[in-house]
Each structure stands twice: as C-alpha cells, then as structure tokens.
Structure of Amino acid adenylation domain-containing protein:
Amino acid sequence: MNQEFWTDRLAGFAEPTRLGSERAAGDEAGNGTVECESASLAGLKQAGAPAGVPPEHVVTAAWSLVLAAHAGTSDVVFGVRPAGVDEPTPLRVRLRYDLPLTAFFASLRAHLEAGLAQPAPTEAELSALAGLAEGTALFDKVVRWDHDTGIRHALELRLDLGEPNLRVRLDYARDRISSADARRLLDDLDRLLNEMVVRSGATALHEFTVLSPEEENRILRRWNDTAVRRDPACIHELVEAQAARTPDALAVVQGEDRLTYAELDDAAGKLARRLAASGVGPGDFVALRLRRSVHTVVALLGVLKAGAAYAPIEPSLPPERAQALLATLEAPVLITDRDQVAAARELGEREVLWVGEPDGTPGWALDDPGPGAPRPRRAQPDDQAYVIFTSGSTGTPKGVLLSHAPVVNLIEWVNTTYGMGPADRVLFLTSLGFDLSVYDVFGVLAAGGSIRVATDEEIRDPRRLLSILDEEPITFWDSAPAALQQLEPFFALRGPRAEHSLRLVFLSGDWVPVTLPDSVRTAFGAPRVIALGGATEAAIWSNFFPVERVDPGWASIPYGRPIDNARYYVLDGGLRPAVVGAPGDLYIGGDCLALGYHGDPAKTADKFIPDPFGDVPGARLYATGDRAKYWADGTIEFLGRQDDQVKLRGFRIELGEVESALAAGPGVASAVALVLDEQLVGYVVRAPGEEPDIAVLREQLAQRLPAYMVPSQLVVLDALPVTPNGKLDRRALPAPQPPVPYLEPGTPVEKAIADLWSEVLGVERVGVVDNFFDLGGHSLLITQLMARVKAALEVDVPMTAVLDNQTLGEFSAVVEAALLEELDA
C-alpha cells in the first residue's frame, strides 16, 4: 500500500458518507433490489467524449452527485469496482459547483485512474489513515461495473453497459435503506443521467439537480406559501391603539408598582417629549442600561414613541465592554436607573436620564421640557426600531438592527394564531438583550394583556418562579428551554396540577429537550407547548412547531414551519434546494428579516445574500449558519450549527439523542450532553429527593445507544447553569473531575463521619479526600446528614458547613472543632 498517496487523498475527510434517510440499523433483514433502464449508451458516450471518459465514468460521476445530494455534503467517498477486480477502490469526490460538466468528468477520471493504479489497501488500513474508529469502514457504498449477483456493502450500484440503453441495478441492505428510498436514489440517478446527455458539457454543476420539477416546486413554493397581507404599522402604534381601547386595564405590574394602559402611555409620551427636546428622533439610538422594573417598560415604549431605536446595554456588563458598545452606537442619550446615574456618566460623554419615581434629582426622564420644546417625530414602519447585540465568532458583538415592520408581522401572527388577549399575563423574565423580550413587552401589550415583571432576585430562584406561576394569574411563559428546566426538578415536590392558569408555553433560543414538553404539561394542567426558532436577524421567531405528541424516536423537538410572510430554505453548497431528508444549510427569507448589522456593511453583505427564489426585486436571504433537513411533510428538523458539528472518531454524535436517553433514566429530571477534550460527557440533573445511580444509568444507555454515543463520563448536578438570557450556559458546566485516590479515614471523628456519609449517600466507603457532592450529595441530603450528626455525635453544625467544607476530611475537622468547643464549655 502507498501510505503517502492515500494519506494525502483522504486528508481532511470528516466522516463516512451517510445518506440523510439512512438508518444506523434496522429490524428488516436481507437485501433488496431495484432496477431501471436509463439513458442511451450512445448518449452517454457522446456526453463523455469531450473529456475522454467512457460511459461507466459518466455514470460514476452522476452517482457521486446523487450521493452528495442525499448525504447533504459536497465531499463524498465511495468504492468503485471495475469488472474483473476483486476489491473496490475508494474514490473521493469533492464537488465544486461552479465547475463545467466536462471538467468534472475529466477530474473524476484522473482521480479514479490514480487510485486504481495504487496497490489496493485493506479496509482497516483505509480507516486508520482516515482517522476513523477501529471497525468503522471508510465506505459502504460501491459502484460495480458489472451486473453480477451478491452484495457485500450497504449499497451497491451495478451497471449493465449493453446496447442500446444503460441498465442499472441498485442492491441495498434492507436494515439500512428502505425500498422507497432505494427507488428514489435510482430515479434520481436516471433523471440526472438523462439531463447530462442532453445538456452541454459547458454547463456548470450547480445547474444540475436530482429534484424533479414537481419536488422543487413543493419545496420552494408550497412549503413556503405563507403570504398574508398586513397593514403597515410601527410597534408602538399597536400599543397606543390598545391603550385607546382599554385605558383603565392593567398593563404592567411588579409588586406594588402598577401601571394601567393610560398611565403607561402617558408616561411613555412624557419620555418621548423629553427625548425630542434633546434632539432625539428617527435614525437615532437611545441606550438603555436598566434593571427590570415597570419603568423599564416605560423606557422601551417611550423611545419608540420618540421615533428613535432602543439599544439594550446590560447593567451586568463590565464598563469596558459597555463603553465599546456605546461607542459603536453614537447614542446621544443613555437611560438608566436613579442609583446608576453616576456609573452611567463614567461610560462616556452623553446625556444621562433616569427613570423611576421623581425625587427632584436632575435628569428625570419624564420631566416636562416646556411649551417651546420640539414635538416627537414619528417613525415609519421601515425605520429602525431596536438593535440587539449578539455574540460574534471573532469575539466582537454584532449589533442586529431591526425595523418596525417585521416585528409587527411577528406580533400579529402570534396574537392571531394563539388568541392572545386581555386575559393573558406574561411572566417577564427575559433580558432586554435577548429579543424574546420584544414580544413579551410589545406583543402582550398589543393584545391587551398584562406584564408581570420578575425581579432579578426572583429570576435567580427557581422555586420562587414556580410559586409565582402557581399563585399568580400567569397565563403565558416565554423563555429559552434552560430557564424552564431550572424549575423542572421542583415539579415533583408539589405534584402535578390538573388545572392551572398557565395556558401557553413558548420555548425557543436553544435545543428543546424532548422530555420537557410532557413534563411541563403534567406540571401545569396541560398548557399548549410551542417550540419556536429562527434568529435575531429574522425578527425574534420565524418558524414554529406545536409540540403535541412527542415521538420516542425524536432526537430533538422539530423546528417546524415558517410563520406568516417568512420563508425557509434548506440548500446545498450550490444554493439549490436540498433533497428531502438530506441535511443542508438553512436560510431564511421573506418579510421577517433584519436591516442588517449596525455599522458593518461587509458582514451584512456576507450574511444577507440575494434571494435566488424571491419574486420581489431586492429580496434577500439570511444565511443562518445552521444545518437542517426537511421531513417528507415539509417539517424542518434542526441539526445544529455548521461550525459546531459534534463528531468523535469519525462518528457524528446526535447530542439530542444522548440527552433524551439520559433524561429517561431513573432519578433524572433533565440532562445535557457535550464534547469536552475529545470526550463525550453527560450532565444529569437529579430529581428532587432522588439520586441517579450512575451504574444503572450507564447500563440503560448501553441498551439504548450505540457504544460511541454513550458518555465516557457522567456528572450529577442540582441544576443546569443558565446565562442572563435564560439559555443553557455550556461554558459554566463543570469539567468532570478525575477520580481521587481512596484515603482511609484516620481519626475517630473522620471514621464516624465516614459511616454517616456512607449511610446518607448510599455508598460503600468514603475516603478522607472524597467530596460530598461528587459522591451524589445534594441540598436535600444535607438536612438528613445534619440530623444524623446531631443524633450520633450530639453536636450542632450549620448546614453551610458542608457547602464550605465539601471533603470528608474538611467537614470532619469542622465537626471536631465543634465537639472540642462544647467540651471546653
């Protein structure tokens, strides 16, 4: 074997070529066969003549395009076995969609002949050179230039080059590929070959497609038939209209602070006049550095009524980062809380106003500017409304700039689709820097509902949030999944509720665990659970999926379908519609898109591209950077980020599937999986009063998942860490700890405490350096431990002693000190 040749040929190959519809393993045994008569042999010879390639090379080239389309990749490897050759030779095809057909034929021939000229390597040698796990074949799909019987691979295409027409037969393993999918592969090959025969050799590859015109129309048109006429409006105008209808209705509440619609509109109007007096109007930004309160809602509405756009600057941001964001905005005014005025003034030279109850301090944002002050200028629907800063791949935040019109479209879609009205109340807990807050404020107010503003202290206390849901008339929850998962461990403590005020739950911004919807329905009297997706660049949400029955086979909750006036496309590397079932790149189009990135025209041009399918001049598509695929009914399944694909040793890991299996384990409330340092790690949140048995959990995982998807380490947590936006904070998940050596307890107190820990934690032995929480301890078991320490040793130690002294040796020292203190007394 020429190791240098094959190492170079396979360099950078990510994983074995796998079709989107292919099963890892199935119950159906045996092999199947489909056949068809395809293009004329004379036509194939003529098509290959300019490149000097025979018909079998033309078919092989077409087959590579079919495999690429169905695998959702531009880099495929499959085997080629000419007649009279015992073992297939691997052929790697890396597609360039701008390449003319003739040049593609010539390139493929050169690569194939070079490979056939090399000594045939074994499958094990090829796998090792490609960096695949032992026992993983580099390819299991083969083209055979003969029509003999017998199948050794999952998929074998056999050619019969007899006159007058090519005959092809596809043999397939039934446990891997369905008969319908096999027939479709052959039909796609036939369509492509006939297209190659009739088209010029100068035709670029991106002009060839395996889709029929009917399939293409279904994907591009029927599944995106979302057009609904909306009257042009601005966001704040929806709230003003509601205030005129129901002036005395409650609009915002936080504790004793309450505002009716009339009071809210009046206060926001005063702020708008104050901003206008400072020269603020359409085209300007007003920075908001505010804690959550009823005054926050006044500030949001007031900025829009002034015709300006608001820009949230989180109070928790370090001063340097806040200064950098403010510098990009050139905002003439910053609005903050009364006690933060001094700190706000240190962030730069601009006018600082404050909101809250008036106390005579200068700079109150609602001060009357006087009769001669200019009146606020009204914004138009296409004017900028807000900018949200999102994390950038370079470390520099991106300011996503939205106009009014797409947000109004989203608000009216939600309120119409889900019947939002005066009886609804949202628990507002999302940061202003997370665009879910835009609907929570303006969408709910446009419907005549009310906003219950959660305090920062309440948001940090999952039990308190659950009690608010249970004790107050909250009808609507809207958050990232992790924010609601924080409450999940406490559902069992107060039991399921047959009836509850909560009627609607929106989950978005991250993966929705497959176990969460049913858990929520049980806990809150069966509210409707809706998974939503999209991007900040596409006006909050632009797709949705009502989560009803959760299929046990799902790895994650589906993305769903586009909302009104939004369009979704799953495209291949040539910006063509991807085959249904095949992964592709996700693009969003329609009337939901942002204006672009503030102050970054190059980034805007890179991510917002001309829409090749749009009927309106100037239509754009937003390149999300996500991977997705279509189901047969048009439902979109989200597959993850393009730049964050999880692979280990040549295997693509479906983290959602791992998390679903973990969450199904005994004693587990919820779970997360991720890859750290080339290891798959599972994090499980213990259910209240229960303790997951790691050994049992591993055994169950081994029964449900292939070996490469079973985490090498499992970590038990009390709760999942979340960001201020309510998303799962993956960076805050603790790194798994290496096992500590066993150190036998030495002193009498250490031995006594070790026995108590062993009883409480249910472990066989405890060493001096063992950690209470690493052994499965949690807050509920601390109470039991304190009671046993009191009973056995007749000494009181505070519960915080375990939190501050987590190893057996450290905690024993605290207990021993307490005993000595009592003896001295």
Summary: The domain at 258-379 is CATH 3.40.50.980 (Rossmann fold).
